[in-house]
Amino acid sequence: MAVWGYVRVSSKDQNEDRQVEEIRPLVTTESHLLIEKQSGRDFNRPIYNSLKNIMREDDVLVIKSLDRLGRNYEQIKNEWEDLNKRGIKIKVLDTPLLDTSKYDDDLMGKFVSDVVLNVLSFVAENERKNIKQRQTEGIAVAKAKGVRFGRPAAKLPENFPEVYKEWKSGKIKAVEAINKTGLKKSSFYNLVKRYESE
């Protein structure tokens, strides 16, 4: 039986030290601790997928929290079931009840663990939906108050009206008009659309 640790952070600028510090003392050797900087959006996670292929029946997978397995209820539940089918035990440090390594043949222990998993997965997904809903509502309120999102609109250069006329009448080509206004190509054409609609 080997004890493996899996640490995941969603982006390169996030720090994994807290997870590593808790998991390192529990793994078989330093090489049994794998770290990945990858979104939990899907299972396009090379290190995690390699780890799943390496682990054998009765090995233990240690993770800091349940959301290291997936981002939503279905993902987490499916991954939990897949690991259990392979005979891999799971230890979730933030939730001591989710430690299947404690329950070798204890049917009640596995039952409790599965119930807790289902409840926590549901709560986690529900919270994510609530956060998204609050963001959507907040954006709608801000827009109603006149708050603009995204990049600020490019300002019209002083010489734009005259350069526009020259370009539109065919006296100069677009490249020259872009150079005269000092704009980037995309900004120039965006301003043309805005200018024409106004």
Topology:
Blueprint: E1 3-9, H1 17-23, E2 33-37, H2 46-54, E3 60-63, H3 73-85, E4 89-92, H4 107-144, H5 160-168, H6 174-181, H7 185-197
Parallel strand pairs: 1-2, 1-3, 3-4
Helix pairs in contact: 3-4, 5-6
How is this structure best described in words?
The chain is elongated. It has seven helices and four strands, in the order E-H-E-H-E-H-E-H-H-H-H. Helix 3 packs antiparallel against helix 4 (107-144) and helix 5 (160-168) packs antiparallel against helix 6. The chain folds into two domains: 3-128, Resolvase, N-terminal catalytic domain (Rossmann fold), CATH 3.40.50.1390; 160-197. With 198 residues, it is of the alpha/beta class. It has a four-stranded parallel beta sheet, sandwiched between helices. It is 49% helix and 10% strand. It has helices spanning 17-23, 46-54, 73-85, 107-144, 160-168, 174-181, 185-197; strands at residues 3-9, 33-37, 60-63, 89-92. The termini are far apart.
